[in-house]
Amino acid sequence: MDYERKLKAALAELNNKGVWKSNYNPPNDKLLKMIGCKQPPPYYRSFVVNVSLSFISFTPIYGILMWLFSWGAEGKSITEAVLWSSIAGTLFGATIALYFYVQHKRLKLTDWKNLGGE
Fold it and tell me: Where are the domains of the chain?
């Protein structure tokens, strides 16, 4: 089954389970689709992929905002800011990934590879 058909099956399954559209089609996913990445919705991704994508999208924004509003005035070094941003990004990514993993199990969703009867 091709990606588009699996995606439609996944979105229909999530909708039937009562998951909010904003949860299964978050802004980062819209951006990924715009640049041509064919990723399944977060409920169907592996834990590692969810951690990685959350880390990549959260860490730079968090680091820049913290630098502008706090760390710069406190005199933190760039190295220290990068370290703390990375720690925060890892914790955020792990939390988000754990949420999607637990929800996938709780809702008894079909695995991505098995969507559409394959």
Answer: 3-117
Tell me the C-alpha distance between 51 and 91, whole Å: 9
CB of 28 within 8 A of CB of 53? yes
Which pLDDT does position 117 carry in this prediction?
59
Cα gap 93→96, rounded to integer Å: 5
Query: Could you tell me which of 63, 67, 43, 64 has the C-alpha nearest to residue 53?
Result: 43
In angstroms, what is the C-alpha Rg of the chain? 17
Q: Give this prediction's pTM.
A: 0.88
Alpha helices in 35-77 (DSSP H): 47-66, 72-74
